[in-house]
Amino acid sequence: MQQESRKNNFNLVRLIGALLVMIGHMGPIMGVETSVMGQDLHGVGVEILFLIGGFLISESWLHDPNPLRYGIRRFLRLWPPYAVMVLLMTFVTGPLLSDLGTSGYFASWWSEFLKNLRFYIVYAQPGVFTNMPMPYVTNGSLWTMPVEAVLYVLTPLICCLFGIRKKSRNSLWLFAAFLVVLIIIGTWLEGHTEIQWIFYGTMWSSALRLAIFFFIGMFCAMEPVRKVFKMQWTPFALLAIVLVLFEIRPVQYIVMVLALPYLVFSLSLAPNPLFYKVGRKHDLSYGIYLYGFFFHQLVTQCQHQTGISLGVPASIAISLCLTVPVAFLSNVLVEKKAQQLCRYLITKLKSRNAEAEVRNGT
Question: Which residues of 287-321 are buried (b: 16+ CB within 10 A; e: fewer)?
């Protein structure tokens, strides 16, 4: 991204999205209601994260449309922290928490969880979290990871297909028409929740909703569109979201598709951003997303085993106290190291390309 775009509130909004995902998941984990205005908090949080992802990732490609460098950036951003989490769950927390004991755990089908490393999502581990409202689920947040990986691959293809780099009006209208078709399909699916498309361990009928928000984020990154985000109109976006009180799912969906992006990007792109320093040194949003669900499960299981009921607010507070330090360690020990490696590789590639151009020129 260009230097002038770095003063923004994206890190704050991304952190809010990750916290909404974490807080909202306490509902299904504890078997209680955590929806607001007819919307699950964790669903809204994921939609916020995918909106921001579509915006920033398309900007990254447009700023440097080199497939190899783009692939390095995206892989080292997404996979290393995720892989460390999978390995920790497989070899540390899994055997420690399993009802089968360490020997029983490793004598069973423990290696199935390692399929997550190749984005084939497996939630269950042998003997882990067996007596819960969501039994045999170590980390329910994992299902979005293959969706995100696929969208990373699709971003350059879509930018090239619609000629988005050219910044032409034709590109804008073509992409807008593409979005309208997707939103119509998504609205229809909201009224037909019985339809399920499962491939490679992922329910892609549910993934389409996230993909639409991702593509809306890409659309909002286009220069003519981003100019429409004005903070003074934000109350109207909030009012529109209040209308989601309607119980008709397609109506809820259309309102969220229109109002949530406006709310997110009006705050993220606000002139003279007040919160641009949030997360500049340590962005905890990815770590909170990766580990929040697990610690919710752990806190809930401890309550079941001890017969103590702390209630939802206290359970969320304790889970946050456990998750935030782990997210910090993930950021410092994994994410930042991966980004250092990324910068090193990108610099090497650019210098090698420059040397090749000099040789060709001579």
Answer: bbbbbbbbbbbbbbbebeeeeeebebeebbebbbe
Q: Which of the four pLDDT bands, split at 50, 70 and 90, describes residue 186?
A: confident
Instruction: Give yes or no for a contact between 213 and 254, defined as CB atoms under 8 angstroms apart.
Output: no
Q: Is 39 helix (H, G, I), strand (E, B) or coil?
A: strand
Cβ neighbours of residue 300 closer than 8 Å, sequence gap 6 or more: 29, 30, 132, 133, 315
Q: pLDDT tens digits, residue range 10-38?
A: 999 999 999 999 998 888 888 776 666 56
- What distance in Å separates the CA atoms of residue 214 and residue 46, rounded to the nearest whole number? 10
- Domain boundary assignment for the chain: 3-361
- pTM (predicted TM-score): 0.91
Structure confidence by residue, pLDDT tens digits, 280-293: 888 999 999 999 99
CA gap 106, 98 in Å, rounded? 10
Q: What is the distance of C-alpha 34 from the center of its chain? A: 20
Burial of residue 229 (number of CB atoms within 10 Å: 0-12, 13-18, 19+): buried
- Secondary structure class of 40 (helix, strand, coil): strand
- Residue 76 CA to chain centroid, in angstroms? 15
CA pair distance 2, 5, nearest whole angstrom: 6
Size (the chain), residues = 362
In a 3-state reduction of DSSP, which class is residue 234? helix
